[in-house]
Amino acid sequence: MSKNILEHIAIIMDGNGRWALKRGLPRTAGHKKGAEKVLEIAKAAKEMGIKYMTIYAFSTENWKRSKEEVDTLMNLLREYLSNDFQKLLDEGIRIRFIGERYMLSDDIVQKMEKLENLSASNTTATLQVALSYGSRAEIVSMVKNIALKIKDGDMSIKEIDEKTISDMLYTKDIPDPDILIRTSGEQRLSNFLLWQMAYTEFFFTDTYWPDFTKEELKQIVERYNGRERRYGKN
Ligand code: FPP
Fold it and tell me: How large is the average pLDDT for residues 47-64?
């Protein structure tokens, strides 16, 4: 039995819309509450000594939602990137973003790059934000990069192994997630970190993301510590 060293938690923050609907509020009110929750849970994870947290903030699929909802999410993001995320820097948290940046507005990409640069030397913990992210798109671009390298004579087919592939994904240098949490009762991966979650332990909770608490996070970590992991991670 291997000891469950916990370094990385990935979260699919689902249920914002239903949280709002239950209260007779617009879906966007749920996203606002959900965004506030990100700060609370990122701080709590850091205090629990968890080095890496990856959150699914916006998927490539989410671009298909109504213009009104996409616009609200983007505006919320602008606000968070300019103000609230600064609080994470003060906590010593490093911020990085994974996803298809070319699909995002220039001003948003600039704010993302600024936060990444400002927090680059923070070492206490890392918050990885998946924005305009889709795992299949990530894999397609990795395959194209490998093909290009081979075509240009910079890599040989023999050199392709699991490490080469991991090193050519957005998540390079970050250990694979130990835990995946998906809130709101749904039990799907939704194109999130497919390669990286080969050995991840999954935890599903009925709680809607805006209602998720650090106490629930602690309970999940305790359950994880009680599980036997049959396969080690890389
Ligand atoms: C799922 O709820 C959640 C999302 C599509 C986006 C998650 C975004 C946030 C928590 C806020 C933005 C984040 C940052 C970092 C500022 P849903 O709309 O699918 O809920 P439903 O399934 O109940 O409809």
Answer: 97
Return d(Cα 100, Cα 39) in angstroms, integer: 23
Token pair for 109: 């990409």
Q: Long-range contacts: 1-5, Cβ < 8 Å, 24+?
A: 1/228, 1/229, 2/229, 2/232, 4/178, 4/224, 4/225, 4/227, 4/229, 5/178
Total Cβ atoms within 10 A of residue 219: 13
- HSE-CB at 164 with a 13 A cutoff on CA atoms is 13
* Mean pLDDT value of segment 155-164: 97
pLDDT of residue 228: 76
Residue 164 has pLDDT above 90, yes or no: yes
Closest residue (by CA) to atom 11 of ligand 1?
Answer: 35
204, β-bridge pairs: 182
C-alpha 205 to ligand 1 mean position (Å): 16
What pLDDT is recorded for position 234? 47
Q: Measured in angstroms, how far is the CA atom of residue 195 from the centroid of ligand 1? A: 23
Find out whether 182 and 212 touch, Cβ atoms under 8 Å.
no
Give catalytic residues, as residue numbers: 14, 62
Structural domains of the chain in order of their starting residue, each with its CATH number: 8-134+176-225 (3.40.1180.10)
Q: Pick from 12, 14, 18 the residue to mutate for probing ligand 1's pocket: most ligand atoms within 8 Å of its CB.
A: 14
DSSP letters, 40-71, are HHHHHHHHTT--EEEEEEEETGGGGS-HHHHH
Nearest-angstrom CA–CA distance, 169 and 18 = 33
